[in-house]
């Protein structure tokens, strides 16, 4: 009889886990729901900026180098400012301030994109766009890791957060390209004015009701609502060597995304690919990310991705995928099929890198350091996303295909540096 009870209990647990393969918790706090909405709205607009501001610059007569500057300008700010905003985001009141202020700045930037008629002014506007993102994402990352997730662990919270923004990032290119096809490129930016404005209001009203709060030291909870320690699988104190590895990997991955989004619309235009097909191709990038993040809501997939002894291998494979995506895009294919496959591969690869780095740099950071760790994580992305388009524009000459070789060069340099450090025993701790 006891044996049968054990079997029945085991089967019941197995059945329960199978039903929850995609474990999207319904027990979400209002703060977390607002955080998910804000992440969705931000990433609905972000790919429209990234794809179509360089296209607008091209239509305004910008050179290839100027297009590269337009593509990298926002990330020039993003390559250092998140460290500063992240430091101050360790306080809850500051997190609210940065999130509300960022959407105000991005609303104004969206208006400017709809009105500007000079590539030089586009560069200036993109710098302010970078300020907006630098205020937003470290504060959002810190909020998810620290105080809005409710009854779930930090990694699970980040999985849901990543699903939210990646869904929007997949829809954004389709939305932008459809609007440009049906109306004009200026109208696409007017829609982002509405998106950013609504999100500003959604975050501003609750913030006005809140008094300044001190950081709470309330316990964290697991998926069953049981209080657990903030210490996670390994240790909350990630090693300096490990954080450098994660940051460098994020920068290399961001080189790929920066190049893929800055140069593809002008490149596709030169091949005679329609603006609608541009939207579909870049949708594949977002869909690849969304699909991967949906899978990480399952505990088994999440553990397979984040296992400490497999992180370096997983990130190397993922960086290779991002590198291959750039090589495929550099091939001439007016049908667009090769590019569709390339963007899907790139989206999955970059998502794996960011997921592992998010865990190593933010989720496993020491108490009171979530904001600073999020700032370092976002700054690493900003450095790569800035460098990729600028280097691509500088070496392109007269060919729009050349910039897509930059991700492979970046990956080769990363591999060489990793191999040298590994021989010296300097990256042993980076496998955490």
CATH architecture: Up-down Bundle
CATH classification class: Mainly Alpha
- The CA-CA distance between the termini, in Å, is 44 Å
Q: What's the overall average pLDDT, rounded?
A: 83
Largest sheet strand order? 1-2
Question: How many strands in all?
Answer: 2
* Contiguous uncertain segments of 5+ residues: 1-19, 211-241
Which descriptor suits the 3D outline? Answer: globular
Helix/strand-derived class?
Answer: mainly alpha
**H-E order:** HHHHHHHHEEHHHHHHH
Which percent range fits the helix content? over 70%
Largest sheet: 2 strands, antiparallel
Radius of gyration: 21 Å
**Helix tally?**
15
CATH topology: Growth Hormone, Chain: A
Compute the number of structural domains.
1
Instruction: Give the full name of the CATH homologous superfamily.
Output: MFS general substrate transporter like domains
Strand content: under 5%
Layout of helices and strands:
Blueprint: H1 2-19, H2 30-59, H3 64-78, H4 81-88, H5 92-115, H6 119-146, H7 154-182, H8 185-209, E1 220-221, E2 227-228, H9 240-270, H10 275-295, H11 299-306, H12 311-329, H13 337-363, H14 370-395, H15 406-423
Antiparallel strand pairs: 1-2
Helix pairs in contact: 2-3, 2-6, 2-7, 2-8, 2-9, 3-6, 3-9, 3-14, 4-6, 4-14, 5-6, 5-8, 6-7, 6-14, 7-8, 7-10, 7-13, 9-12, 9-13, 9-14, 9-15, 10-13, 12-13, 12-15, 13-14
Descriptive account of the structure:
The protein has 15 helices and two strands. Helices cover 76% and strands 1% of the residues. It is globular and about 50 Å long. The model is unreliable at 1-19 and 211-241 (pLDDT under 50). Helix 2 (30-59) runs parallel beside helix 7 (154-182), helix 4 packs antiparallel against helix 14 (370-395) and helix 9 runs antiparallel to helix 13. It has a single domain, classed as Growth Hormone, Chain: A, CATH 1.20.1250. With 432 residues, it is mainly α. A hairpin with a 5-residue loop joins strand 1 and strand 2 (227-228). A two-stranded antiparallel ribbon has the order 1-2. The chain starts with a helix and ends in a 9-residue tail after the last helix. The longest helix has 31 residues, at 240-270.
